[in-house]
């Protein structure tokens, strides 16, 4: 038997789940990590707590020393042996990494729709023809149950809520979130699976119909509020502080534990090699830190030897991180987010600003922005090579185009663009673009239907005009 095969057999029969008492995770203040200072303040994951004593964010800390008792080849083999299988719950891209996510939870409490394991799409034609790149990839996190990467975090959070409701029945009676669309869809679906009441706070008239109908269809209580996301976020914080309603926004660090598995999965899909660049659309900015956590955990446990450089891509109409990047991190100021087609990142006062800054500083990262025309054009250009992009992916592609044009990203750099949602959730904006109905936008890559009569000659004339057949 080859050495690699021997390790895989060990992974199957010596799974650390049989020794779950050896692994653990807890909440600690995020600032103890960002300031690199030990702390005595810590909380069990079974407590309902969102902030540290000084009002700062919390972070989930794993017992890295215990995990290091199993070498990197063991973890690689274990994760590889679970991928794509149906054994509960390990067929999920999140729960295949259970020991690194929520090691203490029982399988019976897990709420999963086998999220993750999303396609790493080789954007060969787009890279070659439009950017002169040979190694461009799109991590299609939107190819998931509710059509966005939010499923990755929601399976973890709702699983923990399910555990709390089973073990401490009066502690949590419902789960609530403020949302720009995708978070509410994920929360509603996972709560519906588990029979847990869900309440979503949505800014009125600021999300697509496809996003709105998802929580409605899954039975959530939908509150349409005459404010923006930041206003909804302030309300949900007040509500959850004074009631047994559990907060599901990314201020709750449990969600980041699921989202970080997308970074681990990227390494796994590249046979445990690291890309040079990872470009991520950013709004509330939890995903920036989550990807950083995933890559860092792989490095700390020896599965990879270096970190990729990270890029946060923001819509110009909601770009507080970009402004801080240009003016100095210490000069960060919230902004009043303006309307953008990238509605899920239309956030002017991001909760995870400190987390994102840490991730970008640690990876020599960059922040880039995209105007409305740039993001819609970039999305359309990608679609013309076989993708079907959401506007947020358009923001990331627009950032890539700029960084390629100015020489920051080289022609052979292995680059991954993270696609955060499925384009089918944003057909209204795509239809408006291709119909050239967007005011003050040229829609230069629009592809309009050609009206012809039911006549062979007219049909052939139209075809020849376009393709010179």
From TrEMBL:
Q: Which InterPro entries match?
A: Cys_Synth/Cystath_Beta-Synth, Thr_synthase-like, TrpB-like_PALP, TrpB-like_PALP_sf
Pathway assignment = Amino-acid biosynthesis; L-threonine biosynthesis; L-threonine from L-aspartate: step 5/5
EC? Answer: 4.2.3.1
Instruction: Tell me which NCBIfam families the record gives.
Output: thrC
SUPFAM superfamilies xrefs: Tryptophan synthase beta subunit-like PLP-dependent enzymes (SSF53686)
Q: Which GO terms describe its biological process?
A: amino acid biosynthetic process
Q: Which residues carry this modification: N6-(pyridoxal phosphate)lysine?
A: 150
Official protein name in the record? threonine synthase
* Principal EC category: lyase
Its chief place of residence is plastid
| Function of the protein | Catalyzes the gamma-elimination of phosphate from L-phosphohomoserine and the beta-addition of water to produce L-threonine.
Q: Which organism is it from?
A: Apatococcus fuscideae
Among CDD domains, the record links this protein to: Thr-synth_1
Question: Reaction catalysed?
Answer: O-phospho-L-homoserine + H2O = L-threonine + phosphate
Alphabetized, the UniProt keywords read: Amino-acid biosynthesis, Chloroplast, Lyase, Plastid, Pyridoxal phosphate, S-adenosyl-L-methionine, Transit peptide
Q: Which GO terms describe its cellular component?
A: chloroplast
Where is it located? Plastid, Chloroplast
């Amino acid at each position: 038997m080859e050495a690699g095969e021997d390790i895989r057999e060990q992974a199957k029969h010596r799974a650390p789940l049989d020794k779950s008492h050896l692994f653990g995770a807890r909440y600690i203040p995020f600032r103890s990590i960002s300031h690199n200072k030990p702390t005595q303040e810590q909380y069990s994951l079974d407590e309902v707590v969102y902030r540290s004593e000084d009002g700062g964010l919390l972070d989930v800390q794993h017992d890295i020393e215990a995990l290091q008792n199993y070498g990197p080849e063991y973890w690689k083999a274990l994760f590889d042996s679970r991928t794509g299988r149906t054994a509960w719950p390990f067929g999920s891209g999140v729960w295949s990494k259970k020991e690194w996510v929520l090691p203490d939870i029982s399988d019976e409490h897990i709420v999963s729709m086998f999220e993750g394991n999303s396609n790493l799409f080789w954007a060969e034609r787009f890279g070659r023809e439009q950017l002169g790149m040979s190694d461009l990839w799109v991590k299609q996190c939107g190819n998931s149950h509710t059509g966005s990467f939010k499923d990755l975090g929601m399976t973890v959070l709702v699983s923990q809520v399910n555990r709390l409701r089973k073990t401490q029945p009066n502690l949590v009676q419902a789960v609530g979130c403020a949302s720009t669309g995708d978070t509410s869809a994920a929360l509603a679906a996972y709560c519906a699976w588990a029979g847990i009441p869900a309440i979503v706070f949505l800014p009125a008239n600021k999300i697509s119909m496809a996003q709105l109908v998802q929580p409605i269809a899954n039975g959530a209580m939908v509150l349409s509020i005459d404010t923006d996301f930041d206003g909804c976020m302030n309300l949900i914080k007040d509500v959850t502080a004074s009631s047994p309603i559990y907060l599901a926004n990314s201020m709750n660090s449990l969600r980041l534990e699921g989202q970080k598995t997308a970074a681990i999965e990227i390494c796994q899909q590249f046979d445990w090699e690291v890309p040079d660049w990872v470009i991520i659309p950013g709004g509330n900015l939890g995903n920036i830190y989550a990807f950083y956590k995933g890559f860092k955990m792989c490095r700390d446990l020896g599965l990879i030897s270096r970190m990729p450089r990270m890029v946060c891509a923001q819509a110009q109409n909601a770009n507080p991180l970009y402004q801080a990047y240009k003016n100095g991190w210490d000069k960060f100021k919230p902004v009043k987010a303006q309307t953008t087609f990238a509605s899920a990142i239309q956030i002017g006062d991001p909760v995870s600003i400190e987390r994102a800054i840490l991730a970008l500083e640690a990876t020599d990262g960059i922040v880039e922005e995209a105007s409305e025309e740039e993001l819609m054009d970039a999305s359309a250009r990608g679609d013309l090579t076989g993708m079907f992009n959401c506007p947020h992916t358009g923001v990331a592609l627009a950032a890539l185009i700029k960084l390629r044009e100015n020489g920051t990203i080289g022609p052979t750099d292995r680059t991954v663009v993270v696609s955060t949602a499925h384009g089918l959730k944003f057909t209204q904006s795509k239809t408006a673009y291709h119909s050239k109905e967007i005011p003050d936008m040229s829609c230069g890559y629009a592809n309009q239907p050609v009206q012809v009569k039911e006549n062979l000659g007219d049909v052939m004339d139209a075809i020849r005009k376009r393709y010179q057949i």
